[in-house]
Amino acid sequence: xxxxxxxxxxxxxxxxxxxxxxxxxxxxxxxxxxxxxxxxxxxxxxxxxxxxxxxxxxxxxxxxxxxxxxxxxxxxxxxxxxxxxxxxxxxxxxxxxxxxxxxxxxxxxxxxxxxxxxxxxxxxxxxxxxxxxxxxxxxxxxxxxxxxxxxxxxxxxxxxxxxxxxxxxxxxxxxxxxxxxx
Length: 182
Hints:
Layout: E1 2-9, H1 13-26, E2 30-32, E3 40-47, H2 53-66, E4 70-80, E5 88-94, H3 97-111, E6 124-130, E7 148-163, E8 166-176
Antiparallel strand pairs: 1-3, 1-7, 2-6, 4-5, 4-7, 5-6, 7-8
Helix pairs in contact: 2-3
């Protein structure tokens, strides 16, 4: 199974998707994330055997007990590797110290299970990936993006099945940030 850990939040996906629709008209060479697939990834695990689900569940339980609900905000549009030559278009975050702390906790816990450690922690919500070349996002100053304040509520383990029409995400496990399995 191809798995990743995502943050469960209170974000209004309609607002994010309406922003994405504006960007769709400006950039046609981008594969946009479908509304139901919008998420903030905490850790990509990759291909994992089904036998490891109990171990992963224990790790997520431990992580969710250590963390408390917190707030951060989505604050603008940016890209990787940079906004001049973006190959990935995303919504950036601010007031994200607790989010970065949670990402580091997830990374540390999963590295003890043999998963590769991350190099950089740049919390973001991916909107799309450029198909060919890159896009320049610096001319988006006239795009009125109101900050979206978001409450982090839990962690979710997703299974990602890749298809010709894009990925299909299926919730495998879910914990709130008090250690309760949902």
